[in-house]
Amino acid sequence: MGLDWERPVLRQSEHTADYLAALERLEAGGFVYRSFKTRREILDEMMSAPHGAPEGYRGAPLAPDDEAARVAAGEPFAWRLDLGAAERAAGPLSFEEAGLGRIAVDAGPAGDVVLARKDVGVAYHLAVVVDDARQAITEVVRGQDLFEATHVQRVLQTLLGLPEPRYRHHRLLLAPDGRRLAKRDHAETLASLRSRGVTAAALRAELGFG
Fold first, then answer.
1. In degrees, to the nearest 5, what angle opens at C-alpha 157 toward C-alphas 20 and 171?
2. CA 9 to centroid of chain Cα atoms
3. Mapped to the 3 state alphabet, what secondary structure does 89-155 carry?
4. What is the distance between the alpha carbons of residues 24 and 79, in angstroms, rounded to a whole number?
5. Is 168 in a helix, a strand, or coil?
6. What is the DSSP letter of 79?
7. pLDDT of residue 183
8. Residues in Cβ contact with 102 at an 8 Å cutoff, skipping those fewer than 6 apart
9. pLDDT one digit per residue (tens) for the chain, 210 residues
10. According to the model, what pLDDT value does residue 56 have?
11. CA distance 64 to 124
12. Which residues are registered as beta bridge partners of 69?
């Protein structure tokens, strides 16, 4: 594409301590809890709830004795955001969306999202707010498919005392059948276009960037 980026390039694998420090702050504030349930178990609970699961339902903290026993037994768990506690502490929030102005934050549909797993480290929501703050990002430009993620991330930014960037969520380039271009669907990549002889200048022109 003929683009360049700032150096040195920052790699998330080199900043694990920053993410864990943020997680520890959230734990100290009572904003996260250990969840030992698998996605399958949570889905089964949602399906079997007599009146339907509440919006954003993802589970709930265990009783302290039960939790301590399962931790001692070495059972795997995920750290989930306690959205109720988080929203009470953060209060009403909003974010600036280019072209739309201030958008009121509503993280309810996301529920108690996973922020970290004992076996694989921190998850996207926590990593990205720490990364943006560490790099002094003021403008976040990303696809429309991540618009809803902004609601949870504004809550996390507030709890961690991190600055709020401005956002622009652009439309997505879609495949001819209307599906989002994704690696899991083996969609065409920039590398494959270049291998077919498509130049960076030609691709920019096709996308309307001159």
1. 110
2. 21
3. HHCCCEEEECCCEEEECCCHHHCCCEEEECCCEECHHHHHHHHHHHCCCCEEEEEHHHCCHHHHHHH
4. 11
5. strand
6. E
7. 80
8. 94, 95, 96
9. 777 888 888 888 899 999 999 999 999 999 999 988 776 776 666 566 554 545 555 567 888 888 889 889 988 889 999 999 999 999 999 999 999 999 999 999 998 999 998 766 889 999 999 999 999 999 999 999 999 999 999 999 999 999 999 999 998 888 888 888 778 877 888 888 888 998 888 888 887 776
10. 54
11. 28
12. none
The tokens for 77 are 């768990």
Q: Enter the tokens of residue 76.
A: 């795997």
Name the burial class of residue 126, with classes exposed (0-12), middle (13-18) and buried (19+) by CB atoms within 10 angstroms of its CB.
Answer: buried
For 204, which DSSP code?
Answer: H
In one-letter notation, the amino acid at residue 64 is: P
Tokens for 43, please give them: 């889905």
**Token code pair at residue 197:** 């002889």
Burial class of 154 by CB neighbour count within 10 A (0 to 12, 13 to 18, 19+)? buried
Backbone angles phi, psi at 43, to 5 degrees: -60, -40
Using only the alpha carbons of the chain, give its radius of gyration. 20
Residue with tokens 């339902």: 57
Q: Are the C-beta atoms of residues 207 and 9 closer than 8 Å to each other? A: no
